Amino acid sequence: MIEGILIGLETAFSLKNLMMVMIGCFAGTIIGMLPGLGPMTAIALMIPITYGFEPSTGLILMAGVYYGAVFGGSTSSILINAPGIPGTVATSFDGYPMAQQGKAGKALAIAAYSSFAGGTIAAIFLLIAAPSLSKVSLAFRSPDYFGLMILGLTAVSAFSAKGHFLKAMMMVVLGLMLASVGQDTLSDIPRFTFQNMNLSDGISFVLVVMATFAMSEALTIIFKANDPTRVAKQISLSQLGSIKLDKTETKKMVTTIPRSSVLGFIIGVLPGAGSTIASFLAYGMERNFVNDEEKQKFGKGSVNGLAAPETANNAACSGSFVPLLTLGIPGSGTTAVMLGALLGFGIQPGPRLYQTNPEIFWSVIMSMYIGMVILLILNLPLIPYIARVLATPRTFLIPLILFFSVTGIYLMSFNNFDIYLMIGIAVFATVLRLYDFPMPPLILAFVLGGLMEENLRRSLLISDGSWSFLWNRPLTLCIMICICLIIGWQSYQSFKTKTR
Amino acid sequence: MKISPSKIISLLFFIFSGFYLYTAHQIQVFTFDENAAFNAKTFPIYLGYAGLIFSALYVLLPETRPSNVDLSVLDYKKTITLVLLMILYGITILRAGYFLSTSIFLVLSYIVLGERKWLWIFLLSFPFVAIFMYLLHGLLNIYLRDPFLQFIGVMG
Fold first, then answer.
1. Which range of residues forms the domain containing residue B31?
2. B4 in helix, strand or coil?
3. Can you tell me the distance from the alpha carbon of A183 to that of B43, in angstroms, rounded to the nearest whole number?
4. What does pTM read for this prediction?
5. Which domain holds residue A485?
6. For chain B, does the N or the C end have fewer beta carbons within 10 angstroms?
C-alpha cells in the first residue's frame, strides 16, 4: 500500500498533473458556478480534451473538474440562491441569507473550509477503504456484478428522480437500448445498425453525454426562456465582505465537520445516494445536534447549517469513488461519466485496478487531495473575480456551450453523422427533461450496458440458461433483496402519495 | 379527456419498445448459437420487454406527481432556430472547414439570441475560434482539415 501511495504521489505531483488539477479545478469552478450546469456537464465538456492525454492525467483533470464544479455550485447557491447542482441546494438554505446580511465573503469562506475539511477526511477514508474493499470485491462473481449493476440502476432511479421512479426506469431501459446499438462484443453480429456503417461501432459515449447534458441543458435554458445570470447582474459581486472567520464561527465548524464528513462519506459510497441526499441528511442531522438557540438560526444564516451540507457533499463526492474504483460500478451519474471516460482509455476499473494500474488508482486519490488544497488556496481569494462569470450573458454562454459540444464530438470522429445524431438525441433529451424524465439514470445505464450484458452472459452460461443464479449465492441473494426493498419502498411511496 | 404529455411520451416509448423488440427478434445469430443459453439477441429481447412493461405501467397507473409545463411560455422560435443552425453547422463543417463554419455559427447564434454588442460578437467568434484552433494544433496536436484556410494559404 505504501508503495502504491508513493507511486500515486509521484504521478500526482508531476508538473503536468499538478497543472491539470489546477486547470481542472479552475474550469470546473467556472462551469459549476453557472446555474443549470453541473459537474456532469463540466466533465462531459472535458472528455474530448482528456483523450489527448495519458489515462492518469486525463482522470486527474476530470477529478479536478468534478471538485471545482461542486465548489462552483456552492458559490452560485450562496451568492445568487441559484444552486448549480442539486447537491448544493441545502447550502443555499443558510448561505444565501448570510450573503443577504452582507456576509457573502464569510459564507464562501465557511463553504470552502468545510468542503476542504470534508474532502480531506473523506480522502483519508477512501485511502483506507478502497484497497480493503478491492480485496473483498475479488470474491465477487458475475452474478454478483450483474446484481450490483441492477442495484445501482434501481437506486439511482429511486433517488435521482423523487416521485418519478417509473420515468427514471424508462430512462434506464432507453440507456441500455442505446448501449446495445452496434456490433455484439462476442460474436461481432451487427445489432440495430440498419445497415448504417456509422452505427457499426455503436453510439459513442461522449456523444450521448454531450447530447443529454451539455447540449440539452443549453437548449432547455433557451426553450424555457430562463436567464440564469439575470439575478447575478442585480447584485454587486465586488462587495462580498471579509472572508475572515472569528473564533466562535471556527469553533462551531470544528464540531460540525467531523460528523458531517462521516455521514457524507457513507452516503456517497451507497449506490445512487450521492451528494444531494448526503447534504440534506447532514443539514437535518446538524439541526438535531445543535442547541435550541442555534436551531432558531437555521435558515437565517447559521454557520452550522452552512458547514454541514458543504462538508457532507464533498465527502460524498469522495465516497462515490469507492464503488467506481473498487467494483468498477459507478454509484452516480457523475462517476458514470468518469467510468465511461476510463473505458475510453481502455482501462477497466474494478478490484484489479488496484493491482494492474496502481498509478491510476493512487494518483486519482492523491489528486483529489491536491484538488482540495488548490480549491482552498487558489479559488477562495479569487472568488470575487471568478464570481463575475455568473454575470456572463446567456446570449454568449449558450452558443459557446453548443460550440464546445459540437466541436467535442467532431474532434472524436471527424464525421457529420455523429453531429446530426447528437443534435437529434439532444432535442429528444430536451423534451424529456421538460417533463421530468431524468437523464442521470440514462447515462448510468448507457455506461453499464456493455458490462451488464457481459455479466449476464457469463451468469446464464454458467447456470445453463437458468435464472437461479440470482438467488444461488448468498451475496447475490442479499443484493436482490436490496433491489426488492428499493422497488417496494418506491411502490409504497407512490401508493401513499396517491391516497393523500 | 385530457391525456398528460408524460403519458403520451410513455405511450410513444411503449411503441418504440415494441419496435425495438421486433428488431431484436430479427437479429441474425449464428446457427450454432440459435439455441444457446445466451446469444446476441438475448439481452436486447429482455430490454424490449422491460421497456414495454415500464411504459405500460406508467400509461396505466395514475400519475402521482404530474409534471406541469406551461407551453405558452416556451420559446419555440429561438430553440428551433438554434437547432437548425446546429444542423447547418454540421453540414458545412466538412465542406467550408472548421474555422469559417464555427465562426459563422457563433456569430449567427449570438444574433439569434438577441446579442447586439458587435465588438464582443466579433471577438467571441473569429479571433476566439482562431485561438482555439491554434490550441488544438499547437498544444494537443489535433489536426483539423480546413479547406477554407488551405484555400487562402493560412494552412498547409
1. 5-65
2. coil
3. 13
4. 0.83
5. 2-499
6. N
